[in-house]
Amino acid sequence: MGALFGTLSYKIFYVQGEIEPGWQERYLEKVKKHAFEALTPEGEEEAADGWVPIDRPLNVHFDLHTFLFDRFINLGFRQDKYAIPTGILKAHIEEREREYLVQNNKERLGKFEREDIKLMVKRRLKEKQLPRMKLTDMSWDMQAKRVRFWSQSNTVCELFQSFFEETFELKLVQANPYVDALQLNISEELIEQLKLVEPCVFVDGIEQ
Amino acid sequence: MDLIDLIDSRRFLGSEFLMWLWFKSECFDGLFELGEEKKKLEVVLDDAMTLEAYLAETERNTFKGGAPAYSPEAKVALRQGKRLAKAKMRIIEEGREWVFNIKSETLDLSSINIPAVLSREEDEKFFERMFLVEEIENIVAALYAEFLGIRLTSAWPDAMLPAMQAWIASDEPAAPNTYPSGATQLAAATIALKKDKPVAVPVSA
To answer: Does any CB of chain A come closer than 8 Å to the CB of residue B174?
Structure first.
């Protein structure tokens, strides 16, 4: 959340590379290809990432109007994850293993039996709960070649960066004091100086 | 040095930028003239700031409430060699006010309070929010450009750094005449804000 309403806390990324002509159709296809696919209790995946319309996280049907706002491409980056507490999972597995041993008149479980029981218990527990959903807005100003992503968590930003790069086949560079300086109209001489400059000492005798 | 090394090794510029903003704001009671157009604005360090030792991030002082930038405790932290790591800032331009947090390491802005959005329609609201966000980003970029124009030239070791060192050492608040005259003009002549074309970041130096 954040692009349309709510808190304005985001990370800026600079987009490297040029947008090729005919991008509209191509980006629509790429967004569809990378659209969010919901997790199911039967599936083996426990986490899923993908694009959703910025204001409709449960809808994954895209056309250009869904994400193109004048010079901006706006999308939601949805991350779902089944989060079964380890303790609960362990307790259920142990209980089911005991039942299985009694039912089958066995003293020990084989490797494959153990794995099957674990999978079955996980599926049953997943059927009883919904995955946790995390939704983070992304707004790409194509004219300014700048992306705002409404999270400052390093882990989420790294995941987003590679997902964006994979979708749009363009590189992103996170904003920081060095890259921000390069974004200014700075001469070659100052760029060289920027590479050489060392931290200064504000208080004599204290190494800073 | 590749891009990653340059990014990591130049992070100190963020804290030096915030320290310079603090010093300049104190010298001129927050009144700035920005860029060639001498756009008037007010830049104030608000009611929260964190100072950290540069090489030992666990040594940290956090100040909340009142006006910590003017407190003797903050001055003591500066004299111990700590630098500004995070600050809440207030910028006022033509009666419009933005309040936000800024982190020195990344120069990320967070919890930005923008001037009131007037649009009612959702699409219009988005464009207005983005316009107001771009405005504050451009103001911060212009301030950073002014800083770099000083920091990357002889104006820094010759005039600005000694003035800031004297300010840190002194118990007196900084006065307008303690700000090195001519530094802003030099900065304006050295560096100008890019207005049209975004710049590609070289992947290696």
So the answer is: no
